[in-house]
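Here is the promised in-class demo. Please do not try to memorize the tokens; focus on the logic of going from shape to residues.
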């Protein structure tokens, strides 16, 4: 089979690319996805995400390597394996990040990636529920919306933040450069009562086009080359080896785990690593799989009384009422994102802008790695350091594509990351103690209540913290010897091969990463089309 473009991965970026590149009816595209169709109804009911993070067929089932930064634990590392990728299983939070995030990308030598450069692509993607303005777009494929409900505890959290001196921001995606500590309602990738995954927003409208071929349940083994030019990919489906040839370009959009892994399986990477695992070297590129970044999330919870929480509403008669409310009105707890309120705060003296993100939910969770609601009414705030200095890796363990790569974000490896995380926990306690929330607090939950010193809080972080699902930067963009792609997202030293997904971020954005990933794909699609016009 042959097309102009072969795209690997039908996740947040791949779905965008498939849509935008096939807008030209003369352009043929093959999109290859390892997972299946997005038919599970829990994908489309917003609150269904809580059942999907460890789903046996809709995720890859990854586990990160044991690491001393988290007391030798090996944590689950969910990544979507279905049309829509992780946008089909995530918490649907649509927060773009600080303008400084993207200006920093540009300062690192990536021309065309400053905030002013990328804002038009955020807007192009968006079908905002309100009116188009200087920040939001209208008429794009991706439905974005305000939080539909404003529960009492979440209202109290915003009031508590203001009592601590945080500015209330009515639109957390409308941030002037240099804006300080603030709090507000998150926005969601939700259209009406349903999740707006990349598959629903971008891919579904494009699947009726005759110039798009979507192949599901297909494992890509490697990129095929003629010298230094990528010519296609080899994949297997149902035990049968096949290939898809690209007369134009091969585009890897398999995410921050999949894209570096496929490059390494193809012999593109650090020669020392490839020799160690038995993969013949095709092209030396030391940065493949390096610079891996993720936000490290830790939570504190309190038992509450005097205000309803999800703990009561998610079981028994309360759940029956909420299901009816969702069916009849499209509102209620089944429309909730992973968090409803977000605060950006500065906890380190040396930081120029807020350096910790705090997200709040009117729910508490039972002890353990899985997100199971506690039986006692409660509330939870989680925090992560926005700009971690710790760097990890993604590395193939063998030449076999079915073998999971080694994944290690190396959480808390840097001293500043540790200080910021401790400061984030202390801020959460201040938030809980502010009058607006304190009136509902019964007690901090036993796992953390007695911890006071920095050493005790650091041990709590190491023992309980986990991923917030923001895997990025493992094929970073830049002009230096450890970067993988240039500012046009072309793999250094090779032709006809790009990486377009979250892995190309030079540094992780300060907040949630799905919105920036979709922006990257919108901008990447425009680059691919411009290159095709230039050579026509």
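The designed amino acids, position by position:
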């Amino acid at each position: 089979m042959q097309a102009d473009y072969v795209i690997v991965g039908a996740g947040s970026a791949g779905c965008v690319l498939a849509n935008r590149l096939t807008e030209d009816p003369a352009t043929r595209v093959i999109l290859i996805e390892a997972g299946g169709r997005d038919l599970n109804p829990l994908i489309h009911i917003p609150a269904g995400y809580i059942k999907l993070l460890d789903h046996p067929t809709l995720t890859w089932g990854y586990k990160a390597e044991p690491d001393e930064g988290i007391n030798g634990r090996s944590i689950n590392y969910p990544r979507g394996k279905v049309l829509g990728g992780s946008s089909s299983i995530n918490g649907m939070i649509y927060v773009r990040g600080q303008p400084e995030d993207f200006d920093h990308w540009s300062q690192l030598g990536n021309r065309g990636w400053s905030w002013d450069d990328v804002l038009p692509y955020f807007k192009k993607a968006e079908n905002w529920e309100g009116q188009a303005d200087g920040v939001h777009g209208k008429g794009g494929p991706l439905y974005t919306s305000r939080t539909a409900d404003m529960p009492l505890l979440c209202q109290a959290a915003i009031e508590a933040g203001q009592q601590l001196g945080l500015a209330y921001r009515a639109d957390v995606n409308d941030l002037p450069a240099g804006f300080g500590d603030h709090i507000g309602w998150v926005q969601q990738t939700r259209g009406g009562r349903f999740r707006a995954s990349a598959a629903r927003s971008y891919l579904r409208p494009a699947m009726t086009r005759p110039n798009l071929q979507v192949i599901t349940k297909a494992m890509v083994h490697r990129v095929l080359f003629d010298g230094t030019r990528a010519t296609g990919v080899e994949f297997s489906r149902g035990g049968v080896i096949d290939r898809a040839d690209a007369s134009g370009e091969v585009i890897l959009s398999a995410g921050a785990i999949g894209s570096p892994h496929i490059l390494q399986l193809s012999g593109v990477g650090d020669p020392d690593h490839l020799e160690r695992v038995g993969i013949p070297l095709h092209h030396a590129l030391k940065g493949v799989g390096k610079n891996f970044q993720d936000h490290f999330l830790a939570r504190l919870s309190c038992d509450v009384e005097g205000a309803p929480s999800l703990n009561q509403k998610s079981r028994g008669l309360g759940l029956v009422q909420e299901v009816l409310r969702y069916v009849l009105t499209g509102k209620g707890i089944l429309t909730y994102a992973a968090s409803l309120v977000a605060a950006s705060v500065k906890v380190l003296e040396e930081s120029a802008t807020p350096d910790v993100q705090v997200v709040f939910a009117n729910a508490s969770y039972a002890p353990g790695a899985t997100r199971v609601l506690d039986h006692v009414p409660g509330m939870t705030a989680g925090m992560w350091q926005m700009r971690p200095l710790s760097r990890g890796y993604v590395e193939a363990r063998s030449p076999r594509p079915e073998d999971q790569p080694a994944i290690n974000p190396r959480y808390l490896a840097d001293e500043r990351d540790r200080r910021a995380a401790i400061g984030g926990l202390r801020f959460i306690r201040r938030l809980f103690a502010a009058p607006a929330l304190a009136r509902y607090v019964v007690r901090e939950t036993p796992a953390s209540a007695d911890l006071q010193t920095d050493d005790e809080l650091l041990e709590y972080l190491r023992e309980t913290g986990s991923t917030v699902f923001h895997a990025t930067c493992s094929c970073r963009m830049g002009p230096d010897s450890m970067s993988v792609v240039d500012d046009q997202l072309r793999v250094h030293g090779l032709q006809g091969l790009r990486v377009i997904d979250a892995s190309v971020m030079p540094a992780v954005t300060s907040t949630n990463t799905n919105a920036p990933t979709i922006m990257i794909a919108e901008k990447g699609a425009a680059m691919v089309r411009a290159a095709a016009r230039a050579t026509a």
